[in-house]
Specification:
It comes from Gordonia alkanivorans CGMCC 6845. The chain is mostly helical and 124 residues long. It contains five helices and no strands.
Length: 124
């Protein structure tokens, strides 16, 4: 066993960390619980803090994909093949029934010669 009493830890100043060692005792002072910094109210972790209508979001994204695909005269089957997904899955995204991952949305956007942000600009 190595005696670490009164030895400084490199890079750690007194008063930093979870507990402060008592001088000369070799034991940790556990009488003071660690305190977390206060979070600003705007960063609340309450589940009800921000409300999003998921159906409206998925519908808006799906409509934007359909509009761009139609503008470019690309079939659903051709887009699905290019993106690497099934036509049924793409149909679900376009209908607002399925939420694409960010990666899938990026693949769809690239196949439609646009950006993911252009496909979500109608979300309110």
């Amino acid at each position: 066993m190595i005696d670490t009493t009164d030895r400084a830890v490199p890079g750690l100043r007194a008063g930093h960390g979870t507990h402060s060692p008592s001088v000369g005792s070799g034991k940790l002072d556990t009488t003071q619980p660690p305190t977390a910094p206060e979070r600003p109210e705007s960063m609340s972790s309450e589940p009800s803090a921000i409300s999003v209508d998921e159906t409206a979001v998925m519908t808006a994204v799906g409509a934007a994909i359909v509009a761009r695909r139609t503008e470019l005269k690309i079939s659903q089957q051709a887009l699905a093949r290019t993106v690497g997904t099934s036509r049924t899955f793409l149909r679900g995204i376009e209908a607002g029934e399925r939420a694409p991952t960010v990666v899938t949305l990026t693949r769809i956007a690239r196949a439609l010669h646009t950006t993911p942000s252009a496909l979500i600009t109608t979300i309110r």
